[in-house]
Amino acid sequence: MKTIAFKALKWFGIFVAFILLLMFLIPLLFPGTISKQVKVFANKHLAGKLDYKKTHLTFFRHFPSLTVSVDNLILYGSKPFVSDTLLSAKEVAAGINLKSLIFDGEVKIDEIYVGDAYANVFVNSKGDANYNVYVSGPDKSSKDTTEKGTSIRLDLIKFRNWHIKYNDHSAKILLDAQGLDYTGKGGLSEDIFDLKTDLEINKLDFSLNDIYYAQQKFLHADLITRINTNALTLVLRKNELRINDLPLKFNGWVSILKEGYNLDINAASENTTISDMISVLPPQYLEWAKDTKLEGQSDLFFTLKGKFSKPKDLKPRLTARLFVKDGKISSSKAPVPMNNLNLDLDVDLPSLNPEQLGVNLKTLSFDLGTKNTFRAVVKTKGLSEMDVKADVKGALSLSILNETLGLKDFDMKGLLKADLKTNGLFSMEKKLFPKTSGYINLKNGWVKTSSYPNPISDINLAASVNNTDGTFGSLMVKIDPFKFDFEGNPVFIHADLQNFEDLLYKVRVKGLLNIGKIYQVFAKKGLDVSGLVKADLSLNGRQSYASNGQYSKLDNKGTLILKNIKANTSYLPKTFYLKEGNFEFQNEKMWFRKFYATYGKSDFSLNGYLDNTINYFLERKGSLHGNFALQSNFILIDEFMALKSGDNNDKSLDIKYAKAENPKSSGVVIVPKNLDVSLRLKAKKVGFKGMTINQIGGTASLEKGQIYLKKTSFDIIGSKMTIDARYQDESPLTANFDVALKVLDFDVQRAYKEIDMVRELATSAKDVNGIVSLDYKLKGDFDQNMMPIYPSLEGGGVVNLRDVEVKNLKMLSVIGDNVGADAFNNPDMKGVNIETHIKNNLIHIEEFKFKVSVLRPSISGTTSLNGLLDILVKVGLPPAGWIAIPVAVIGTAEKPKIKFFSRTGQGILTAIYNRKINKIIREEKRAKEKSPAEQRKEKRVQEKKAKTAEKTVDKNLND
Q1: What are the boundaries of the region Disordered (predicted)?
Q2: What is the pTM (predicted TM-score) of this model?
């Protein structure tokens, strides 16, 4: 027995040694095969650029599997995101099928390991995705089965320490998962297989429409998903999630479509506690929950069903239901707990459209002892036009409520009573208001937070609302009074509002408020508010008095003083700083008696009035009308471009997305849509794109989101310019304009050096010295950097060469070289008028004549803004140029080519520009050779189009 045992141990040792030897030798025997076939596979199947440092073949990184490992891998996205990282990882390892490698010389991958990775999945606002990097192989039916190479038959996927960011601008979804560990097992290479998943995420953020529904949540998932690769469908079979302490089970399926997704998901969290439900709240509430006793049962159900497709404008339907039964909240400091907390809430959101939002709060009730009770039933359907039915009643001691909830850093006192019933349709547009009766009263209120040492005290509010027939006509709102005291400064507001169809108002406001300090009471990170507001207003009148011109019946008077106010808007990158604003109300007008503000490096002083401000602020629609004198020492237009960097974090989602997708772009200036204001403009200096404009004076106006300049003059490059213009933004990235300009006696060389547009539109100006005048009209579009999109330009006009020298213009010099006339290098063009028309990136030149010694040449034809030439030069011979030699000039402005005794050159096909999407479909290019008659016909058509475009610009400006 000893001998047998010894021999067995010896052979076992030899076997182990042999296996260990193989584990060292195999990586040495096959490194070329592995490395070569991995590169072949990557180049064949990946459209995105792939970079990595080293490859390793070893048994020991993921023992006992033989793995080929790639260190420090970076995979870039698909078009148009080829410069953006899609995936980076410290290690990517693929498990190799040992049998296929040794006996067949093939690399078959059946396991994938990825560690310390960052995946940046991105879909822009147009629906373009960066993850389309995999290039599928040929159809299986045509595959050559004799071919050897790399293949994938996955049975295991293991991710460790991932950071995954999914940012979908088209769906307005952000998902950010950090510390993600994932293990997936199954026959991943089969057409239909079950994927067993174990998933854990340390921190999970989820937002929709820039609203966060989950922040820094822990998630664990145990899932079984049936995947059909033929139909790109995922069937959720066993799916158990835990979000913090809240368990969640769901089932259903997901299908990936060509233009989006198709979903049918049902989820439930049943028989859980209120404490479990609270655990999914934002992090700032979790500390409160730890120190507060929470009891009671809760259930949560939701479904997400339907298709999502950006091109077809389809979105799924979301429904949710939340139950809380026999809840109890208590704190050791509270005299009584919150008992009998019951909640039954339904939410229905068809097509994820807020305008179709349905909310059914079947019950919300709780007690704080026998004298402190609250009951509410609310049902709504719609948003801007809302069908609402509600019944709210309660009487609460705010101090008891505060102690019962155990709120930290927040104290409140006072007796709150409310009794409100409403039933009917609310619509601002149709002037409908539900039948309503009720009141809300607060006595001896008091609020204090840890953010500021002093409270807001002596808060008293008595407000009532009544509506008898469901229209604005019978609506009555009365506030008598609303008052409070802060820092020893009392504020009083009394309001009596009746008949909202033709509002009869009586409002009294008086007080001094330090909004910087009061904001600290309710401080919020990321925002900065400061300044003083002093009001002494008495407003008494009816809406129709102002609109019908019955100003004598109005009794609006008083003053409003603002000092050191900071203000942001959603479309400007910086903060407005109102240093001083003194406003006086006189019946229908709000006078700006003293107004001085700064914005970045820009400053503004206003004097004038706004009309009918009371009506505007009551209705919250329409436009504000006014007339002002605006003075400024300096205005820097660049600071107003929507995507410029600044201190304003409260930007619209459209601007945030545009900036994320175009990080190097400035955007365009966005104009407020609610202003109808005339301005008498006077500015000492204006800066734009490095260009300085001096002494601007004229009339400007803002109307319905457009800026108009009328007979506005200014000094530029030492010359006087007068313009009429119109500007309108279309998005944060595009805008359109019309302009008619007249410039007297400006220096050509200075203009060429200092103005980008001159260099682009008049490339030959670099060979011109002297003084010219200009009378020109243009319309077109601005791009994402507020530069003209040249193929969009249309218009025309006249350039007068008053006193100029044209030296070494290549187009003329090449003619002079061939005829032996040096005078072509310095022709006499003084006093010549050159009429041109622009359309589709081509400049059409009307025939003009000039002098070259005893010769009388003339020029006409077409040139593109990119320098292509199709010009006819007729060299008039003495006497008087009656006999002319035609010369066709083609090629480019830098390399012209000539054909003597030819009236036809080679045509230029126009650029094609889509104005609706602000996109150049095709650059201009050389036309195929055509007969002289065909070229002349095409030239006449193009010139006619250009002249029509000029007339259209002129008509638009006149309108």
Answers
A1: 924-959
A2: 0.75
